[in-house]
Structures are given as C-alpha cells and as structure tokens.
Design goal:
With 179 residues, the chain is mainly alpha-helical. It has a single domain, classed as Arp2/3 complex 21 kDa subunit ARPC3 (Orthogonal Bundle), CATH 1.10.1760. Helices cover 73% and strands 0% of the residues. The protein has 7 helices and no strands. The protein has helices at 4-24, 36-46, 49-66, 72-91, 98-117, 120-124, 129-163. α2 (36-46) packs across α4 (72-91), α2 (36-46) packs across α7 (129-163) and α3 runs antiparallel to α4 (72-91). The longest helix is centred in the C-terminal third of the chain and has 35 residues, at 129-163. It is globular, with a radius of gyration of 20 Å.
Amino acid sequence: MISLNQMKNWVKYITAFLVVFAIRMIPFRAPNVEPIMATLMPLGKIYGKVMTFVFGFASIALYDVFTSGFGIWTLITALAYGSLGLGASYFFQNRSGVKFYVLYAVIATIFYDIITGLTIGPLFFHQSFVVSLTGQIPFTILHLLSNVSFAIVLTPLIEKWFTAREVKIVGLSKVALVS
C-alpha cells in the first residue's frame, strides 16, 4: 500500500516532469534554454538514482517523440541526460546550495554538450568534426548561461518545493483579548 507521503512525492515528480516538458514545447524558444538541469539536480538528492535517471532520459526522449521523431540521436542524448541524473544523485548526496548547483551545472553541461554535440553530427550525419565543434560553441555558451542562471535562481526553489512538508493551519474557534 502506498502512503499519502509517497503519493505526494509522485505528484511532485510528475508535476515537475510535465512543467519541464511544457516549457520545452514553447515554440520559438531559444535552444538549450530549458529547466531540465535545474530540476534534475534536486531530484538527484531527493529521489535517488533510478528516478533521476528516468527523469533525464524521459525528458529528452518524450520531447523527441513529439518534435523531431525518435532516432539514434534520441538514444544518445537521452542516455547522456539520464547519466547526468545519475551523476546528480551521487554528487548531491552530501551537498546542497547554490555553489554546488552552479558547479554541477557547469560540469554536467560541458559533459553533455561534448557527448552529444561533438559525436552525433560526425558519426551519424557525416559532418566534419570542425564544423560540429564550430557550431557547438554558441550552443554550449547559451546552454551554460541558461543552466547556471537556473542553478542560481530556480534550483533552490525547486529543492524547497520538493522538500516542503504540508503545514496544517489550525483555526481558533474563540479568541479572547486580555488587557
């Protein structure tokens, strides 16, 4: 039997996933400006390895299914983002705070962009490495700026939301003022 607290955790997890997906579906959005990393970092600390891997993997895979279609690039990018989720679950076991969010966002973004941006084009679309590298630089700069900005502003709020406990407000039926 699932407890009420576990149910609330699932609702938050699914809500976070759907919000990230909806933001990614905004038309004419700048590429790589998306809150996946911002959400993935506190998820890694709170939900553990499997659920954080699934969040990263599914965020990429579902988006591709609805936009560009599922292909080998989907598998590579989804596995890469799933790996970032797995890495977040290890990195944030005993760490928290903006300084660590920014550090992880920088390292993870560079890792992701190297794995995806410098392999998919040359390996599957016969692009030269130089063309891939040159084209990847502005995308990585934008990706870093957005992920670091979200790590500073958004990630602490997401972590507070994930860890917030329900507060019961007890009403008073009578109040007496004594002077």
